[in-house]
Design a protein that fits this description.
about 450 residues, mainly alpha, Rossmann fold, DNA Cyclobutane Dipyrimidine Photolyase, subunit A, domain 3, 3 domains, 5-stranded parallel beta sheet, globular, DNA-binding
Length: about 450
DNA sequence: TTTTGAGTTGTTCGA
DNA sequence: GTCGAACAACTCAAA
């Protein structure tokens, strides 16, 4: 039997963990997590706190043997492997731009000392890059990808190893105290993830297809933060789904997550840059007045109730309903003409589920710069979206107290109230019809510039 | 090989 | 009030 290191990253669980199974099969295991400043900085306080809580749950499941070390993984991982006398470091492979570079560097450093990094599995049911078109090139459109992804298939979940021997007594820097966070976060860790899955499957799933688009109903899975840190693996969800309409709907949402990871793997710089090169020339607003509008957007005081409700939900829960994410993103890009990447950065800093692939490609989809050769004319009207998806106005009133006394759907157009705008609620910062026309003009200019 | 039709999530306008 | 058409350009798979 030989000692190995299991380096946890986005896989904070023991069940359905192929890399852990491989490590345990080899002998005693050193469970490691590295506090990497390059990742913790951009994560922001919300995800850092959620991560730390997930680590505490993991440490408990490991009988307190999780080794936590702070520093650059290129230094930390080889040093710990040497300390433990481990020839192999097992990981679930990382397919993101930073993770790939980091793992190459760590693998090189380990090799220099006669050791190796072994990647098994990934945070996805199907590894990014594994689904290709007939001609061997990657998909750029979801539906054909999804058909091929389903046809490809995935293995069933594997149980947690029952007889793991954790190496004890190695120095751990410990899990730091949570940074202070104003938002109300979900419970962290595997048990919370499993409980949420069971709760969802026991009832809400039946209405998922019909109600997932209704922010007031709050009928979505709320599993995204757990998927982000691997407290649950998508295989564990997929294994529970059948052929009914709502089950198929949830499977396709997981398919979107896999699709965007695949796109990002094939084009790593699409995290920051527009996937459609022609769209990169779009005229954008910047400077002090754009900064002021951006600030109004972040603070939920644009004067458009659904937009403001969404941005305040982001502050309050570090999470926003998917339908509302699209509405607020469309508003920033099409009404305020601000770079989608700036909005994506703001989301990534404040979302508890903030995932580079899903977040940034979701933004690109709204901006019309990404996959789904996006119709330039798809510009969300915040009022229409409110009437359509929050018909009773419950979602808006939940997050915008200034409008709490306005009954029904009238809450979406407070400027039309007979008594005038309720006290404390801001005037609209732009004229939607005018800005919609402006967005269309800029698109037309882009075309004529060739 | 070329053609054809469809593609997550929309809005407006005019009948 | 509802309904269909129009709003481009590109991707992909099937015909």
């Amino acid at each position: 039997m030989t000692t190995t290191v299991l380096w946890f990253r986005r896989d904070l669980r023991l069940a359905d963990h192929p890399a852990l199974v491989a490590a345990v099969a080899a002998g005693p295991v050193v469970p490691l997590f590295v506090l990497d400043p390059a990742l913790l900085g951009p994560a922001g306080p919300v995800r850092t706190a959620f991560l730390y809580r997930g680590l505490r749950a993991l440490d408990q499941a490991l009988d307190g043997n999780l080794v936590v070390r702070a520093g650059d993984p290129v230094d930390v991982v080889p040093a710990l492997a040497a300390e433990a006398g481990a020839d192999t470091v097992h990981v679930s492979a990382d397919f993101g731009p930073y993770g790939r570079r980091r793992d190459q560097d760590v693998a090189r450093a380990l090799r220099a000392a006669g050791r190796r990094l072994t990647g098994i599995g990934s945070p996805y049911a199907v590894d990014p890059g594994a689904v290709l078109k007939q001609d061997g090139t990657p998909f750029r459109v979801f539906s054909p990808f999804y058909r091929a992804w389903r046809a490809q298939g995935w293995p069933p979940p594997c149980p947690a190893p029952g007889h793991a021997a954790w190496v004890e007594g190695l120095r751990s820097d410990g899990i730091p105290e949570d940074p202070s966070v104003d938002a109300t976060l979900p419970m962290a860790g595997v048990a919370a993830a499993q409980a949420r899955l069971e709760e969802f499957l026991a009832g809400p799933i039946d209405d998922y297809a019909d109600r997932r688009d209704s922010p007031a109903a709050d009928a979505t899975t709320r599993l995204s933060p757990y998927l982000k840190y691997g407290c649950i693996h998508p295989r564990q969800i997929l294994a529970r789904l059948g052929q009914s309409k709502p089950h198929e709907k949830l499977r396709s949402e997981l398919g979107w997550r896999e699709f965007y990871a695949d796109v990002l793997w094939h084009t790593p710089d699409s995290a920051r840059r527009s996937l459609q090169p022609t769209m990169a020339g779009m005229e954008l607003d910047a400077g002090p007045s754009a900064d002021e509008r951006f600030r109004a957007w972040t603070e939920g005081r644009t004067g458009f109730p659904l937009v403001d409700a969404g941005m305040r939900q982001l502050r309050g829960e570090a999470w926003v309903h998917n339908r509302v994410r699209m509405v607020v993103a469309s508003f920033l890009v099409k009404d305020l003409h601000i770079d989608w990447a700036r909005g994506a950065r703001w989301f990534l800093r404040h979302l508890v589920d903030g995932d580079l692939a899903s977040n940034n490609h979701g933004w690109q989809w709204v901006a019309g710069t990404g996959t789904d050769p996006a119709p330039y004319f798809r510009i969300f009207n915040p009022v229409t979206q409110g009437r359509e998806h929050d018909p009773d106005g419950d979602y808006v009133r939940r997050w915008v107290p200034e409008l709490a006394e306005v009954a029904g759907r009238a809450v979406h157009e407070p400027w039309k109230l007979p008594g005038g705008l309720p006290a404390g609620y801001p005037q609209r910062i732009v004229d939607h019809a005018a800005e919609r026309a402006e967005a269309l003009d800029r698109y037309a200019a882009l075309k004529s510039d060739g």
